Amino acid sequence: MAKIMIVDDAAFMRTLLKNILFPKGYEIAGEADNGAAAVEKYKELKPDLVTMDIVMPNVNGIEALKKIREMDPNARVIMCTAVGQENMVRAAIMSGAKGYIVKPFQAPKVLEEVQKVLGS
Amino acid sequence: MADNETVLAKTNVDFMFPPKPEGPFEERMWVRNVLLTITSTNFNLSTSTSTQSIPLKGLEDVDMRQSGERSVLVLTRYEDGKLKPYAVSATAKTLETLRKFLIQFISDAFKTGIYFISPASRGGVVLTNVSWDKGMLLATQKSIWFMSKEKQIRVGLDSITNIKREARKMGGKDRNVLAIDYFEKSESLSSLVLCPDNTMDMLEKYLTDLMEKYNSLGTDQKLSDIEGQVATLIYSGVDSNTIQSMLSIDNKTMDQYYDRLLKLGMANVIRVRRELELTPRGVKYVTDMMSNFTTEKKGG
Asked: B246 to chain A, minimum CA–CA distance in Å?
């Protein structure tokens, strides 16, 4: 089953995503609580997919996405952010994000998006 | 019905006066096999002994619902200062035809030309294979409608969780769009409206005022952090046992949190006591909470 890395500075949101993905058989390769750690962990873990929060301290999700895509142009990254920040969709998509979910999210839709991006 | 009125449509239906537009639609209350005829001014319901004529003028809403095995079309009229529901039941196909036909008679409290995407996101996932439709937005005291040549999409005001303006880059220009978030059939959806800024000002105010009638919360009705987390987890579809395990809370504490969500009208029980589903009010709370949290992060 696919290996997924979860990046979010809120432990609660990371736990929530783990609880959505793990019961469906996805392996949680690892997690990171900021963009810089995400880039380092991506090198080490080589996950099949990353869920990436956008608004994070220090290196934000879009910067981390760009660095990951520089290392691995085929990286599959789904961006996450809250309602009201949808204007970041374009920046994320232009930077190579494969999908986008808005918080708060519903489990079936997250799983749908993960499957779609993994199948792309 | 006057003899000289031209009948535009007719069909056999079951009929009732439901206590509320959202039901319940109890089996014993249906009057079976009533002849429904529609003229240019009325819809008429005839049994073997009587005919009741109801003017189409004042029609505020036509909403399809499911009640067990039954498909139900609820017609709501504005009568004597109140909204009065009428329910008819027939096959889903018949009701869909009726619904499409009756939409043209809905009183247009607010009607304006717009471009729209509906839905633009589903369950928090932004849909990418969608495009703008050119059409109308029609708002009544019960619902708003996105209407184009091909689409007639209804959004009940009681299901709207948020209305807000967002900046979007479109065709190389910065444009404002109005995002309308709503919660329907356990699914969170969002639609986008594009129109001139002055129309958007009016539309935003009109819809916000209408929505507040349905979803207003007092200032003393704020959830604690952990109650907010419970609401977020319910919204995401996490079951009660997992919520308890994630947040390390016992049965009694969990019951207290659930009771508070129920008391504030933010959730409904969907399975005997232990599983809840958020109401539009609860969804609005969680959405606002997430949005405020992200704003605070950006600010910090």
From this structure: 8
Gap from B91 CA to chain A (nearest CA, Å): 30
Backbone angles phi, psi at A47, to 5 degrees: -70, 160
Cis preceding-peptide flag for A47 (omega within 30 of 0): no
pLDDT digits (tens, 9 = 90+) for A10-64: 899 999 999 999 999 999 999 999 999 999 999 999 999 999 998 888 888 999 9
Nearest to B160 by CA among B109, B231, B214, B116: B214
Q: Is any Cβ of chain A less than 8 angstroms from the Cβ of B272?
A: no
Q: How far is B279 from B265, CA to CA, in rounded Å?
A: 7
What is the C-alpha separation between A63 and A54, in angstroms, rounded?
Answer: 9
The CA-based diameter of chain A, rounded to the nearest angstrom, is: 33
Cα separation, B151 vs B154, in Å, equals: 10
B165 bridge partner residues: B178
Question: Which of B81, B138, B78 is CA-nearest to residue B108?
Answer: B138
Phi and psi (nearest 5°) for B170? -135, 120
Q: Does the model's ipTM exceed the 0.85 cut?
A: no
Contact partners, residue B2, CB within 8 Å, separation at least 6: none
How many pairs of residues across A and B have Cβ atoms under 8 Å apart? Answer: 100
